[in-house]
Amino acid sequence: MSAPRRGGDARKRLAAPTLAMLPRVADSLSFLYLDMVRVVQDDTGVCAQIQVDDDHTDTVYIPTAAVSCLLLGPGVSVTTRALATLARHGTSVVCTGSGGVRAYAGILPDSLTTHWLEQQVNAWANPAARLDVAVRMYGMRFGDEVPESITLAQLRGMEGQRMKALYRILAQQHGIGRFRRNYHPDQWQEQDPVNLALSAANTCLYGIVHAALLALGCSTALGFVHAGTQHAFVYDLADLYKAGTTLPVAFSLHQSTDPEQEARRKFREELRLFRLLPRIVQDIQTLLGSEVDDTADRTERHDVDMVHLWDPKTGVLPAGVNYGQEGS
To answer: What is the DSSP string of 32-59?
Structure first.
């Protein structure tokens, strides 16, 4: 009687979903952007249909099991059957603006690992760990090591000086004189083209960061530098990339008559060169992950089942087990 029971347990363990079976966010096909297509489910799989002309429609099949996040542009329509298949395969779906900029809503699969969310919450809830993440974020902006004895207030001062110096350099390069950042909504119509372009480009950047956080299952609200807003972590991460992305775009449009529209278009065009999404994912994992060998796979945990129970003493317990006899 024991042998069949062991065999049945083995088959049950093999059939149970684990994190090792899920697609990795860091894979080469992590993010796929679609626009001006109809996403449907047919007898073969999920596909994108492109209307070439009145008599011809091209069909491109989407490798749903290899895509961690599907970005749907404003010209996409999608069927419920296709969404259900994407959810079963563990693919996050994010509704975005044109070119993948601006994230409006996200549909997260039930099978999405909570590993990175747990890492984020643990670091955010511990004051010492939260300070460490904040300090490392500032260090990533400065590009070199931050002294251990430095305070957060000193880091804020250093960051302010860095941004002033960058504004001055870019202003000199474009011959526009002194520049002062102004992002107050009540003064929107009084802003110069650079400020208008910078606000528009930053909004696009926030959307990209938002999409990356959704794909990893992180909370956008639990920031380490910013606080008090549902996009605190978005703002934290976006500040890592503004100096090399949105700022050069904005200053290049200092003579534009429509700086907001041109900033969105130019940022979207240059996004292919930035290769920003993989970089954002890697930076999130570096900030929230523990210190391990760089050659190791840090995208997922493979040591626990996808669904488990938490206990303050034993840690992880298997789910799907009746513990009714424990208290007797």
So the answer is: EEE-S-EEEE-SS-EEEEEEEETTEEEE
pLDDT in tens, 153-174: 999 999 999 999 999 999 999 9
The residues with which 309 forms a beta bridge, in sequence order, are 317
Annotated binding residues for Mn(2+), written as ranges, equal 159, 226, 239
Residue 29 CA to residue 137 CA, distance in Å, equals 27
Q: Which residues are annotated as a binding site?
A: 159, 226, 239
**123-126: Cβ within 8 A, 24+ apart:** 123/224, 123/288, 124/222, 124/223, 124/224
Domain ranges (residues) in the chain: 17-107, 115-288
CB 224 within 8 A of CB 130: yes
Report residue 298 CA to chain centroid gap: 16
Query: Which residues, in sequence order, are bridge partners of residue 106?
Result: 94
The reply to whether CATH 3.30.70.1320 applies to domain 17-107 is no
Please state which of the four CATH numbers 3.40.50.2300, 1.20.120.920, 2.40.30.20, 3.30.1330.60 is assigned to the domain occupying 115-288: 1.20.120.920
φ and ψ at residue 291, rounded to 5 degrees: -70, 115
> What would the pLDDT profile of 181-197 be if each residue is shown by its tens digit?
887 767 777 789 999 99
Give the global pTM. 0.72
β-strands 69-72, 92-96 pairing? parallel
What residue ranges in the chain does DSSP mark as E strands?
31-34, 38-41, 46-53, 56-61, 69-72, 77-78, 92-96, 103-107, 308-311, 315-318
| DSSP for residue 29 | T
